[in-house]
């Protein structure tokens, strides 16, 4: 495949597009930013496949509705037409000079998928996977990947953030490896899947031919959705509580934490619902993160480890306090933990020792103090969610005050999905999976931080231009304040 991909008439661009064409794993999602060259990559990959396996190559491109495939079919004419491929408009089918066949077909739902079960394909390309609200139909199509001639069969999909299927696509492909390019073992224990992220900046050919593309994209959706399209950020959700979350700013690769950095833990207790334990390090001096353009300022919190007690979607492990404490002790061997903060409800005694007291007993000796559980702001005080939001904002776009190692997958999965409470807009909807969010909030309130206020004096050309009115206008009598 790798050699043929470069000598049949189409060449992938260096970067994610080339990685997609060469990837040997059974199941791949090429997803992220709009304009990332995903459709071209699929068309090109099948061209290379057809060049090698000739009449044994059988491919199908699928969209939920056929009108959605119009631009894809137009692009296929530009790639396959000059190479002598024949297109049958009535059947929406390409045939190569060597006999390879590529079809364009609709797949509305799982009932549609049943219609294809008697057919054999060596390649399936599902365009805009998030258009399917559930994985039922896409998964059923995997059963049609077979070849009596022994041709390797692969399943390929493209997607942008957003759409009715955003959550299940994110859960399957992005959450296990948010930065991509690492194989993920499938449920059968034999095949692998991989997420390859796409960025509009990777598609240099398109940007050269259409330099206004990004400007037009900015006018085509909400602020959150446009950001998702441009950055390929799967954490961006319209109406999200933390609309300032950005995987590019807040998720980093693990590094060796300096010994002099202070470490502590935070926990949100759960039994029937998941519990969440997070371990944090406090940056002692500004640190530049290689390859990201980010600087972690002094005082930044780095969540370097998590333990999320989850059996299923928002379902806990029902572990007792002693076993949880034992698990915490095992995970932090070698760490010097200065303190721990825990959901105050865990300190309530109900006819016996509290959960916190039981975790502190020998041999585990896991000690906590009650966390500040002030969720929203009161007069003169910053609420817990505000404290967390301020740290996510950070000192500047390249200087966040709260970051997560990419191994903290449940924090990365659930925090961006938190929604506003319908009755109290300043609070999180507790019907959602808010456990990692609560635990992170406890960590933030244990080390209060607020962005320093910046005061700018009025511009003056000479000293005589400086008046008290100008000073007051800039730094003084804003509504509700006193001088």
Could you name the key traits of this structure?
483 residues; alpha/beta; Nucleotidyltransferase, domain 5; 3 domains; 9-stranded mixed sheet; 19 strands; 27% helix; 18% strand
> What is the CATH superfamily classification of the largest domain?
P-loop containing nucleotide triphosphate hydrolases
Tell me about the biggest sheet?
Answer: 9 strands, mixed
Subunit arrangement of the protein: single chain
Overall SS class = alpha/beta
Gross CATH architecture of the largest domain: 3-Layer(aba) Sandwich
Share of β-strand residues:
15-25%
Shape: elongated
Task: List unreliable stretches of 5+ residues.
Answer: 1-6, 475-483
Give a count of the beta strands, DSSP E runs of length 2 or more. Answer: 19
The level-1 CATH class of the largest domain: Alpha Beta
**What would the average pLDDT be, to the nearest integer?**
87
| CATH topology grouping of the largest domain | Rossmann fold
Number of helices: 16
Q: In what order do the strands lie side by side in the largest sheet?
A: 3-4-5-2-6-7-1-9-8
Radius of gyration: 27 Å
Distance between the termini: 72 Å
How helical, in percent, are the residues?
25-40%
Tally of separate domains: 3
């Amino acid at each position: 495949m790798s050699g043929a991909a470069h000598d049949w008439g189409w060449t992938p661009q260096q970067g994610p597009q080339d990685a997609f064409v060469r990837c040997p794993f059974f199941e791949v999602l090429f997803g992220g930013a709009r304009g990332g060259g995903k459709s071209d990559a699929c068309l090109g990959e099948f061209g290379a496949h057809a060049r090698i396996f000739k009449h044994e190559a059988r491919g199908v491109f699928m969209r939920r509705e056929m009108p959605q495939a119009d631009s894809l079919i137009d692009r296929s004419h530009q790639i396959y037409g000059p190479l002598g491929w024949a297109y049958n408009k009535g059947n929406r089918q390409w045939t190569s000079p060597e006999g390879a066949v590529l079809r364009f077909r609709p797949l509305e739902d799982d009932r549609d998928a049943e219609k294809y079960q008697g057919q054999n394909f060596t390649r399936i390309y599902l365009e805009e996977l998030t258009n399917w609200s559930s994985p039922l139909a896409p998964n059923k199509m995997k059963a049609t990947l077979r070849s009596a001639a022994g041709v390797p069969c692969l399943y390929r999909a493209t997607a942008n953030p957003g759409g009715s299927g955003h959550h299940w696509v994110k859960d399957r492909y992005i959450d296990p490896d948010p930065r991509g390019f690492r194989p993920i073992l499938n449920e059968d224990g034999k095949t692998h899947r991989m997420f390859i992220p796409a960025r509009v900046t990777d598609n240099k050919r398109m940007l050269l031919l259409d330099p206004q593309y990004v400007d037009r994209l900015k006018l085509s959706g909400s602020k959150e959705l446009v950001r998702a399209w441009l950055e390929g950020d799967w954490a961006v959700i319209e109406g999200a509580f933390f609309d300032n979350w950005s995987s590019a700013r807040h998720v980093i690769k693990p590094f060796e934490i300096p010994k002099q950095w202070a470490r502590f833990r935070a926990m949100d207790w759960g039994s029937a619902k998941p519990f969440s334990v997070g371990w944090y390090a406090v940056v002692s001096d500004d640190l530049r993160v290689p390859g990201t353009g980010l600087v972690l300022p002094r005082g930044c919190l780095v969540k370097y480890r998590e333990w999320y007690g989850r059996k299923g979607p928002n379902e806990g492990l029902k572990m007792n306090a002693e076993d949880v404490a034992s698990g915490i002790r095992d995970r932090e061997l070698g760490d010097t933990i200065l303190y721990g903060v825990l959901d105050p409800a865990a300190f309530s005694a109900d006819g016996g020792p509290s959960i916190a007291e039981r975790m502190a007993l020998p041999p585990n000796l896991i000690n906590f103090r009650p966390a500040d559980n002030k969720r929203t702001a009161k007069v003169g005080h910053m609420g817990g969610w505000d404290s967390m939001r301020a740290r996510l904002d950070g000192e500047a776009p390249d200087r966040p005050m709260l970051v997560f190692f990419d191994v903290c997958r449940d924090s990365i999965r659930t925090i961006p999905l938190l929604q506003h409470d319908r009755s109290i807009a300043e609070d999180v909807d507790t019907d959602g999976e808010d456990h990692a969010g609560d635990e992170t909030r406890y960590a933030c309130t244990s080390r209060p931080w607020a962005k320093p206020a910046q005061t700018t004096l009025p511009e003056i050309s000479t000293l005589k231009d400086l008046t008290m009115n100008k000073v007051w206008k800039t730094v003084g009598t804003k509504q509700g304040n006193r001088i």
